Structures are given as C-alpha cells and as structure tokens.
User: Which sequence fits this backbone?
C-alpha cells in the first residue's frame, strides 16, 4: 500500500459581500511550474521538441496561406481610397466607375492583379481610379487557356507539322516592346519586371527573393484584326531594325549600370566582374559596327582608348579571354582598319603567352596578365580540351598581322600533339588533357557539348582559315564527323527527331546540350566548302531538332539541356529535367540558322530566328534596360529572371540574328571570313600560289 499523495496546495474560493470572486490563481501557476519541474528531463525535452515542430510547421504553412488570402484581396488593395481622395473625384468619373462596377465582368484574381481593365479600351487602359503615391503595375495579360498545350511565343500560332512554316501568319505587333511600357517609380526605387517588384539599387547578386521570382504572364496575343503599324511590318528591313532596337535596349542597361565592367545585372541594376576588362563592351564592338550603331561604337572606342589597360594583377581564363577579348579586338580592327584595336590585341596576346610554358606545351587554363604567371585550376592539373584547341584562329591571325610567329607556333604545336594522341574513338576525343603529361584524361567519355564542342568546330575553321592546305586538320574533322554519326547520332521514338547524344564508357546517354546546336551550322559550312553532301543532310535534320528545343517550350526558348525519348511510344520527344530548364541567352541555334539560310535561302530559317527574337523580347527583356537569363523556360508566367546578361548575347546572339535577316550576302561573306566561336569575324587567308 502506498500512502495517499500529498497535496501541494489548497484551492480556495471566497465570496465577498459584493459578489466579487477570489481565486488563488497565483498558487495554481506555481503548481504548474512545480509539475513541470517534476517531469523528467526526457519528458520535458520531448514536449519542447513537439512544440518546436508545431512552430516550424506553422511558419512553413504561413506563406501559402497568405498567398491565398492575398489573391482574394488584391483588388480591394489596389482600389482602396481614403475619404479625401473619393471626394476629389469628379462626378463624371464616379458615374463611369459605377458603370464599370455594374456592367464589367469581374476581373480574374492573380498574385499581381491590377485595377479592372476595360476590354474595349485596350490592354493598357485602366478604368479604376489610382490611389495617390501607390505604384500601380499594368495588369498582367491572362494566359490563354483555350490551348493548354500551346508552345513557343504567345502570339505565334503553332501548327501540328513540326517543319511546316509556310502560310504561318506572323503576329509582329509584339516584336519590340516599348521600353516605357511598364512603369518605373524612380522615387521609390522600384522596378516592374513582368509583374515583379524589385529593389532597383541592390548592390551585388543576392539570392532571388520571392518577388524577384514572380513574373507576370507574357503579353496577350495580338488581335489579328488590328492594323499592323508600318514600322513593325514583316519586311526584312523591319526585322533588322528590331535587332537594332534589341541591341540598343541591352546597351542602354549596360551603359547606365555597368559601364566599363564585365557584365550587366539588369534586374538589380548593377554589374558583375569576371576579369575586370570590360568584357561586354569589347565583345560588342564589332556587333555595333555591323549594325551601323555609330554613336554607341564611338562611345565604346573612346573607353577602349582611354580606359582599357591589361596591366592588371588579375587572373584570366586563357580560352575566354582569347575568344571574347582578343577575338573581338582583331575582328574590330579588320572591320574598321583602326590601329588602336590591333595595338590592344598585340598587348593582350603577349600577356597570354606564359600560359604555354608547360612541360607538355599544352597550355594552362589561367594566366595572370599583370605578373606573367600561369597556372592550372586549383583543383586539377588538367585543362579542358575545348579550351586548349579553340584559341588557334585568334593566335594564328595575330601572328599573320604582326609578323611575329611565336603566337601561331604555340597553338599549332597544341594541334599537332592532339592529332597524334592515343585515346580517341573514331575521331571523337575525351574532354580533358593533362598539362604535365600531355595525355588525355577521363578517357571513354565523349560529347559534343560542354568541354569538347569547339574542338570540332575549330578543326574545320582552321582548315578554311589557312586556305584549305592543312591536311591533318581536315583528316581529323572528317574522321570526327564519321565518329559522331556512328556513335552519337540517334532518333527519337515518337517523331523521329535526329539528335546527338553522349557516350560514357560505351553506354549511350540521350542527352544533348544546347551548345551542340552549333553543329548544324558547322556541318553546313563544311558542305559549302566541298565536303561530303551527307554532312548537309545531317545538318538539316539537326537544325529541325534544335528548332524543336525552342518550339516545344512554353516560353519559346530552349533549355540548357534536353534529354530525348528513344522509346517507341506516344510520349513526349523532349524531356527537360528541373535543373536544366534555364536559358542563358545562348547563340548556338541562331548561329546555325544563319549558316543554314546563307547556304539554302530557305525562308523558314529566318522565321525560326524571328520566333526566337520575339521570345527573347517577351520573356527576358527588362524594362529599365538589358536582357536577363531566366530560370525556367517551361513557365511563361514565372520564368524566374536570373539577373545576368552574358556578354555573348550582344557579341553573338544579336549579331547572328542581324546577319540572318540581312539580304546582303556580302556582309561578312562566308567565302571571305570565318567566325571564331564567339562570332568574331576573321579573314580567310589567301591561298598560297601553287
């Protein structure tokens, strides 16, 4: 028998004459504390853990709950007025408001819903009153739900035949969105980007906030019955002007927020540095010259003359610096004849030469252009094969112009070494090469994507540049194309799309980088220069596939990587994994479209390029200036701006689009010039006398 439990307190209730009740609550609280102390440490820990879980669950569920409530209350928030504001509204406006409330259909709720819009007044006409000092965004157009599987730019009808573009009606009203079409409240430092509210003066590159990730729907499809303004007709001249407008808009952002720096961050209106050498500016020089933008070119040239210096204690990547800066300076020199650019190219070329001082003559990946010291990456002694074999066009041309042979000798030695190396498979090469041993590493993995792509491109282009006299280069190129056809080319099951996959230790992977879309243009260039006709057949097939990588995406923009279905089923041809859905404004597809149109004159290639330009304008254009990479090409409502404009968007993408739309076949004729892998044109050397 246990003794009866001891009472720790006495609960006492007393009534006073005035019926006031007294309760010893204080002792009750003390009793609770005693009971808590009587619990074991394990029991108390368990209770605290459960409370913590409840708290975390509540915090996680809070954003979704508030998002639902916000969708219900947006309209009231936008239309909320105080009494003084209502009194100031004229009687005739009040009558219009009353009619709008009673007759207009209710607006569709959305996360960035604006005031009600009169459907007869156009997309920008706001019927409801605006509260003073409240930034009001234009109402995001509602996504067309009639065609849930519609792909590509919102205003372009997509038919079932994947290659038939004849008879397609071009909705060109969308071509160039007005830079003033979305409001910027400078006093509040808030920028509207596709419905997102973003602080305009962010400094660096912070993780994207929820507001930055939210983007409104693309512009609604234009009414085919509306008249087309003459300045945006479908003619070639207007397409050229559309490219100029796109360049001006991108340049406006760079000039205002990133002048003299490497890259523009258009969302935060700031800049990013890679080497600190004005990368975007130099990469864009020849594009401005080709597009006839004389004022912009003069400003950039002035900066090169007065501000550009390579005497800096900075590590640069040999490959990127060569193709973007050295190539850009050499190309601009050839187009303008201005010695300023050649002198800058000579200075840079000499500072890059220490990279070749290795035991194997295979260059290091990085070099300090101020100290003259080169080194491999910190994590490996390997260099990427594409990087060491895609600098030849530029260094060879520098030797020809300066009559200093050391540049050409250094890069030619690299090609001689790679030519005789073991470890290839029917002309296909591994992705890495060791700077100490000079041998391939990571053998058995073959791709035409990142780390190997431009090796194959430069085999052909060096042969063309040198007057078609270097047989080893031609031999390696022809053997590689046969290896690609034998090991890497496959077709999808459902629609028979031809694609180029990857090989890893004899195992095929149906994965294709967007970078591989350089290949149709390169194959076509080879066929144009007398190589086998089946190269052109493969180019046509691959060009269709690269087009579908855009066409089948909801934004009309290609993802970075696509996987293909090779099973005989009715499923989709293209599979895009969540991590691969970003678009970096890359040029490879429009590059190949340029080559294909030059050699075939088939207008569908121009139409495909036009679709891409429209999609860039619809989903990547930032109102304050510039274009941004996006995170998700499968979500037209929220493509997710990444706040970065790569230099190659101006140096390559817009340049190739302009050349694609130009009727002047002598503008950088492909019988006179060869383009480096950054779209900088270098002259083809005269053939030596026989």
Assistant:
């Amino acid at each position: 028998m246990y003794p009866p439990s001891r009472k720790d307190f006495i609960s006492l209730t007393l009534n006073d004459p005035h019926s006031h009740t007294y309760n010893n609550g204080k002792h009750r609280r003390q009793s609770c504390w005693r009971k808590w102390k009587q619990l074991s440490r394990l029991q108390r820990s368990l209770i605290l853990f459960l409370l913590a879980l409840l708290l975390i669950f509540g915090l996680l569920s809070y954003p979704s709950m508030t998002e639902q409530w916000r969708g219900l209350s947006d309209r009231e928030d936008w239309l909320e007025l105080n009494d003084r504001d209502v009194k100031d509204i004229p009687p005739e406006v009040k009558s219009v408001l009353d009619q709008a409330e009673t007759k207009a259909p209710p607006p569709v709720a959305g996360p960035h819903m604006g005031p009600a819009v009169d459907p007869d007044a156009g997309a920008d006409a706001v019927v409801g009153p605006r509260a003073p000092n409240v930034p009001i965004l234009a109402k995001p157009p509602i996504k067309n739900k009639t065609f849930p599987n519609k792909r590509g730019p919102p205003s372009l009808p997509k038919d079932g035949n994947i290659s038939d573009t004849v008879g397609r009606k071009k909705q060109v009203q969308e071509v160039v969105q007005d830079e003033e079409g979305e409001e910027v409240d400078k006093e509040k430092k808030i920028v509207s980007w596709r419905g997102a509210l973003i602080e305009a003066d962010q400094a660096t590159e912070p993780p994207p906030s929820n507001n930055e990730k939210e983007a409104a729907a693309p512009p609604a499809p234009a009414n085919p019955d509306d008249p087309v303004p003459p300045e945006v007709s479908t003619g070639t001249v207007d397409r050229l002007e559309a490219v100029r407008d796109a360049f001006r808009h991108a340049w406006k952002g760079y000039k205002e927020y990133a002048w003299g720096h490497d890259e523009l961050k258009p969302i935060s209106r700031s800049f990013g540095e890679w080497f600190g050498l004005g990368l975007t500016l130099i990469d864009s020089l020849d594009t401005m010259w080709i597009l006839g933008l004389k004022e912009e070119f003069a400003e950039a040239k002035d900066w090169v003359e007065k501000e550009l210096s390579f005497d800096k204690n900075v590590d640069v990547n040999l490959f990127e610096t060569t193709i973007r800066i050295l190539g850009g300076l050499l190309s601009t020199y050839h187009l303008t004849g201005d010695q300023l650019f050649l002198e800058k190219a000579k200075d840079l070329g000499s500072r890059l030469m220490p990279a070749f001082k290795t035991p194997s003559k295979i260059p290091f990946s990085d070099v300090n252009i101020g100290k003259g010291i080169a080194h491999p990456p910190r994590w490996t002694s390997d260099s990427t094969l594409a990087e060491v074999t895609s600098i030849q066009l530029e260094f060879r041309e520098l030797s020809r112009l300066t009559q200093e042979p050391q540049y050409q000798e250094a890069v030619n030695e690299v090609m001689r070494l790679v030519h005789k190396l073991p470890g290839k498979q029917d002309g296909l090469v591994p992705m890495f090469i060791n700077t100490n041993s000079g041998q391939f590493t990571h053998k058995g993995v073959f791709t035409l994507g990142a780390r190997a792509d431009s090796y194959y491109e430069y085999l052909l282009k060096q042969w063309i540049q040198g007057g078609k006299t270097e047989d080893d280069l031609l031999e390696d190129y022809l053997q590689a194309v046969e290896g690609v056809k034998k090991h890497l080319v496959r077709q999808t099951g459902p629609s028979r799309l031809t694609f180029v996959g990857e090989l890893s230790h004899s195992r095929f992977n149906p994965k294709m980088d967007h970078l591989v879309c350089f290949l149709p243009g390169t194959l076509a260039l080879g066929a144009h220069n007398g190589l086998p006709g089946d190269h052109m057949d493969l180019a046509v097939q691959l060009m269709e596939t690269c087009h579908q990588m855009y066409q089948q995406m909801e934004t009309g923009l290609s993802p970075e990587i696509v996987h293909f279905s090779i099973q005989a089923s009715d499923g989709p041809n293209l599979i895009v994994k969540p991590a691969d859905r970003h678009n970096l404004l890359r040029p490879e597809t429009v590059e190949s479209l340029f080559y294909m149109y030059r050699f075939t004159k088939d207008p569908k290639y121009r139409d495909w390029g036009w679709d891409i330009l429209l999609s860039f304008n619809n989903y990547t254009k930032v109102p304050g200036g510039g274009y941004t990479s996006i995170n998700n090409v499968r979500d037209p409502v929220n493509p997710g701006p990444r706040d970065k404009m790569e230099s190659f968007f101006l140096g390559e993408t817009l340049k190739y689009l302009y050349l694609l739309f130009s009727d002047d076949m002598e503008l950088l004729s492909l019988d006179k010039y060869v383009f480096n892998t950054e779209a900088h044109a270098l002259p083809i050397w005269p053939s030596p006398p026989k």
